[in-house]
Amino acid sequence: MSLNIKPIGDRVVVEAAPAEEKTASGIFIPDTAKEKPQQGTVVAVGDGKKDEPMTVKVGDVVLYSKYGGTEITIEGKEYLMMRESDIYGIL
Amino acid sequence: MSLNIKPIGDRVVVEAAPAEEKTASGIFIPDTAKEKPQQGTVVAVGDGKKDEPMTVKVGDVVLYSKYGGTEITIEGKEYLMMRESDIYGIL
Amino acid sequence: MSLNIKPIGDRVVVEAAPAEEKTASGIFIPDTAKEKPQQGTVVAVGDGKKDEPMTVKVGDVVLYSKYGGTEITIEGKEYLMMRESDIYGIL
Amino acid sequence: MSLNIKPIGDRVVVEAAPAEEKTASGIFIPDTAKEKPQQGTVVAVGDGKKDEPMTVKVGDVVLYSKYGGTEITIEGKEYLMMRESDIYGIL
Amino acid sequence: MSLNIKPIGDRVVVEAAPAEEKTASGIFIPDTAKEKPQQGTVVAVGDGKKDEPMTVKVGDVVLYSKYGGTEITIEGKEYLMMRESDIYGIL
Amino acid sequence: MSLNIKPIGDRVVVEAAPAEEKTASGIFIPDTAKEKPQQGTVVAVGDGKKDEPMTVKVGDVVLYSKYGGTEITIEGKEYLMMRESDIYGIL
Amino acid sequence: MSLNIKPIGDRVVVEAAPAEEKTASGIFIPDTAKEKPQQGTVVAVGDGKKDEPMTVKVGDVVLYSKYGGTEITIEGKEYLMMRESDIYGIL
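ok -> structure tokens follow
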């Protein structure tokens, strides 16, 4: 589940969950949720900013702002590069 | 009353009270209160920001800015994800 | 004169004085004072921000910016929730 | 020359000098000086901000920005409530 | 792979990879990726800002924001001068 | 060359040099220099901001931004009240 | 190569290189480079900001942002007064 990239600072790479997925913890993201947070899995984590270690770790299932990240393509797959502050919480 | 999500940093998850509710402490939120703070119950709390522990805790009934939060859906129920600074006070 | 709410951080709840009131210290707020500070009584005070204790206390009669607060209704009465920085001075 | 109000933080209450006054130090503020600093006397001073004591004191004759203050009326007289940073210098 | 320029502060000089290149780690940047991060190689690195040493070093293959850098021409070749914060991650 | 005013904080009072003057160090300010820095002599200096002593002193001939100061009139003469950061350099 | 002016704080005076010059290190600035950094030689350096000593020194050949400086005329010659942060790197 880890990825061959080292994010800089407080950046995180997230693999977005497919739409309408229902997770183990039972969070349901309906297809029509346009403004709502997205769900995904953390696949790479930076070392954090000075004196501020990271909270999330690789493997965490997270809710994140759909407006916070930047799409990147690694080995033909789409991921999102975002800052930890774009992540709302860990499920 | 707790929820299966760990908010990041100073974020808080609040379950909004139904409109027109009258609480134990007697605060009445009329149906026409368009610009006024909303009332709800804290259901999840982050660990706070660096050197700034959180003030609110799970179970607190709070007044919050209706413009400060983001709607999230967990197990089919609507909640609000907000920062503690969006909370005005604890009832 | 105290109120059943605990403001978060540097927030303060103020009960506005009726218009045209003349206080013990003789400050007169005429009915036509449209842009001028308002006068009221502090009814609840937060614990302040990190390393910055509050200056005002419950019972203080204060002048405050009429643009700084948010109206809240508690037990059927109107109050103003504001930050201490919205208060100009203690009478 | 002191006034029955305690400004909060770095705020100062100033009694504006009448227009066209000529002070002991000889500063002349002509009637047509529209954009120029105003002159007045400090009548109340706050305790300053955290770790930043105040420089001005009650009785100081000061030049101040005419755009920095807020008019307040105390005992039927007009004063200006401003921050110390709105004061340019002490005459 | 190093370059005869010493960037100031947290600046970095990057040599952009040709479009559609496929790197050793398998990241594929298609020709049509208009909004996506760019890939390149670090050729010069500043000493960092006060108390914040640099993370990237000469020779690192990096993903960077295509909007963050400034084009410079050294010895007839194009490079990008950017801040380390414009770099998303190291491949 | 000193002046009967004590600027607050990092403020400085400057007496502008007449246009087209040529100083001892040979700086020539042509009449048509519309966007260029102005030259003048420091006549009063504040005590600086917290932990930041002042660099300029009374008597220094300085180049300053013509957009940074505020005109004041003392004893019938025009001066400029500015912050030290509006001064580019000492001649 | 030094100049009779002491810049304040982190300011630097740069003598711009003539257009299309080719330096010892081989950087070529073509006549049509409209948005690209400019090259010049540092002729005066301030003492830096509090706790932040300067990196560049008199005599350094530097690349700088053409939008960062202010033109000044000293002894009939044009120079640029800029902050060190407007300098990209030392050649």
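Chain F has a mean pLDDT of 82.
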